[in-house]
Every structure is written in C-alpha cells, then in structure tokens.
Task: inverse folding
C-alpha cells in the first residue's frame, strides 16, 4: 500500500490536501460549536429593559413561544409549532426557575441565540431561528434577556423533543448556516437604512420565510428576500424585492402603514402563513424602527 | 372585498367621508359575509385547486364561525356610523377582528 502511494505522488498530495481540509473544517466547526466564554459579556454592560422589549417585538418571540389559555400573552411555551416534516413544542422562556429560563445566566442565553447551543452544550433545532438571531449585537441580546426577566414567571414544563436526525447531525449544518459575525452597518448607507437592514436580518428573521432555500436547506443568498415556497404551508411566501416598482406599495410610508396596521387598514396580503403574527409584533415597535424597516424594504430592487 | 377599500380610503383621507356610502358598503359586506359563511361545506377546498381555505376550517369549525359572527357584528356596527370621527375605529375593528383575524388563522398564502 505504502509503496503503491509513493509511486503516485499526485494521489498522495491529493490525500494530504484532503486530510488538511478536513482538519481545517474540524477546527472551524469546533470553533462554531464551542460555546462563547463568559468574557463575551462586556464588562461595562448595563441592561436597558426598554431596548430589550424592542428586540422581543422585533424578534417575534411570542409567535412561537406563546403560552396556552390564560398564559396566551406570555412566552410560556407548549403550543404546537408546525415545522417542515414535524411538529415541535417551543419551550417556556418565562423567568420561572424550574420550568423556564429563570435560572439561566447571561452567557447561557447569549449562547442560545448566537450559537444555537443549550446550557448543556447541545444543538438546538433551527426551527428556533438562531441562524438569524446570531447576527444580533451582544448588547441587544443581553437587553432582551433582561426584559424577559421582568415578565411574570409561569410554571409550565415543556418536554424537549428529540431531533429526528440526531442533534449531533445539526453541528455540520449549523457550521454552514451560522454567520460568523454580528451585523456590520453598510458604509455609504444612512443610519436609518442600516437600522432597518439590521432589524430585518437579525431579530426580525424575515429571511427565514422570505428567502428561498437550497438543497441543503441553507438560505439562497443570491435570492435574498425574493420569496419562495412557504416552509410549512401550501402556497408561497411573496417576494419583498421591488415592492414599489411592482406597485405592491406606493412608497416607504405605504409599507410602514401595511406593517403597522395590516388588515385594519385594508392591507390584504399581510395576514396569512404566519405573517399576521409577525405584523402584530412589528406593530408594537417604536415608529422610528418600523419606519427604518420600511425604508430598507423600499430600497430592495 | 371591493366594498371595504373605499371605507379605508375615507379613513386615510383619500376619499371624502360620505355616511351614505359607509352605510351601503358596510351593509353589503355584512350580507356578503353571511353568504360566504355558508360557502364552506366540508371538503369544498378539494374541488377547487386555487382555494386558499385551510383545512383547519373544518377542524376548528366553532372558532371559524365565531370569527364570522364577530366580522358580521363589526360590519353592522360600521353601517351605523354617521359621523366622520367614528369611522376610523369602526373600519379598523372590522379589518382587524374580522378580515384579519380570519385570514391569519384560516387562509393559506397565495399559490
């Protein structure tokens, strides 16, 4: 075998290159599936609960984590969530110490949203849209945590479902899907545009539905927000590109009104397939933030 | 529904307020909703390839009918509006609790 190899230098170098590549991938992967250390929290961090509420509404946490019955308006979890080919029950994220995230540390919460990793270092199922939340600023995530801590705790145990392919299989996919960095403002664009882009890309996770996926279930960045098949329902998610040129909306103010009021002001195409919940959450944002989202969307060609 | 659009136009100040138009359109909407309510016999979505009716309509029939009832009530209340200042809340209540609430839960995205 060895003699055979030395006779074929090309094959030998290919094998070496392949092994090196695997090593590099493993190192990169290890980096991404390792939790962030406590030092990732800025020493001078001071919580801003009001900003945390903005992130909560932009992030639409309640859409998936909504409780049942009297806990409808609290993120107490336990409601059915349809995902491609399966049904999940999102957990309780109220600050109850036994059944919610009351006993969590800041760094555990940061790892959940930025790395998709649980406190026991397991991979979360990406129905929890951490591949978008990972773009968020550390401070915004910590403020969101501080806000969640101000909510009334609800005792409601929700069992974790095993992931059909095994949670470890997720490691590789996550390595491909997770952004390696936070959102960076695009130079040359206005602060308002960048605010909108940030809210859409990170907390808003609009791309999870509005950007089509490729065979590996990764977002097709070449068709950013261009619409595609709905992830779980029959029918399509519409494109958010060229909304003005296609005469879907008159201008950014019109998009703002659609997101703020939805069908209350006769915008008929912003209710179904999960968009109604998104619109309801967005309507609670400060007007300046919603306007920023509208300005960003209006700019997409 | 084309009868709803002009009412929204009045709320947005694009069309001048006209109590007679409000009365007529809102009454038509209420009547149309009553008619539509009976157009959802079980399995009717299967015949029409283009239908955006969700199968949940027949699983959660009570809830579906309740939203219809609310929508009809809101449309009737809207038909009583006589003054411009009362228009916006009435139109928005119909749009949100009627049209929006139902499409959110029981309508599929476009094909």
Result:
């Amino acid at each position: 075998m060895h003699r055979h190899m030395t006779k074929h230098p090309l094959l030998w170098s290919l094998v070496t290159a392949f092994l090196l590549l695997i090593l590099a991938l493993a190192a990169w992967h290890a980096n991404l599936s390792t939790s962030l250390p406590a030092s990732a929290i800025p020493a001078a961090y001071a919580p801003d609960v009001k900003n945390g509420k903005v992130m909560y509404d932009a992030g639409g946490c309640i859409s998936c984590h909504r409780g049942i019955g009297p806990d409808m308006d609290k993120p107490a979890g336990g409601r059915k969530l349809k995902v491609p080919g399966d049904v999940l029950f999102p957990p309780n994220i109220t600050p109850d110490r036994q059944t919610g995230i009351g006993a969590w540390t800041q760094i555990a919460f940061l790892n959940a949203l930025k790395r998709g990793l649980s406190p026991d270092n397991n991979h979360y199922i990406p129905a929890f849209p951490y591949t978008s939340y990972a773009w968020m600023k550390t401070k915004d995530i910590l403020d969101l945590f501080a806000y969640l801590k101000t909510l009334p705790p609800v005792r409601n145990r929700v069992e974790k479902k095993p992931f059909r392919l095994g949670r470890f299989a997720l490691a590789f996919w996550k390595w491909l899907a997770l952004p390696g960095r936070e959102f960076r403002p695009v130079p040359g664009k206005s602060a308002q545009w960048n605010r909108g882009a940030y809210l859409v890309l990170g907390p808003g996770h609009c791309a999870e539905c509005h950007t089509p996926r490729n065979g590996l279930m990764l977002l097709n960045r070449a068709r950013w927000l261009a619409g595609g098949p709905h992830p779980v329902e029959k029918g399509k998610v519409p494109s958010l590109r060229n909304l003005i040129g296609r005469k879907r909306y008159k201008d950014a103010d019109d998009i703002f009104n659609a997101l703020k009021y939805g069908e209350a002001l006769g915008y008929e195409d912003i209710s179904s397939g999960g968009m109604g919940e998104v619109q309801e959450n967005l309507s609670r944002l400060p007007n300046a933030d919603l306007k920023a989202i509208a300005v960003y969307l209006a700019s997409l060609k | 529904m084309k009868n709803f659009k002009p009412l929204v136009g009045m709320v947005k100040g694009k069309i001048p307020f006209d109590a007679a138009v409000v009365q007529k359109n809102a009454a038509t909407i209420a009547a149309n909703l009553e008619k539509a309510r009976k157009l959802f016999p079980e399995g009717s979505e299967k015949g029409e390839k283009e239908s955006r009716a969700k199968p949940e309509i027949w699983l959660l029939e009570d809830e579906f009918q309740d939203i219809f009832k609310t929508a009809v009530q809101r449309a009737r209340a809207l038909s009583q509006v006589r003054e411009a200042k009362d228009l916006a809340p009435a139109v928005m209540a119909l749009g949100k609790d009627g049209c929006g609430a139902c499409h959110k839960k029981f309508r599929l995205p476009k094909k």
User: Anything to note?
Assistant: The CA atoms of residues 57 and 64 of chain B lie 6 Å apart. The two ends of chain B are 19 Å apart (CA to CA). The helical segments of chain B are 5-11, 19-37, 44-47, 56-59, 61-79, 87-106. The mean pLDDT of chain B is 92.
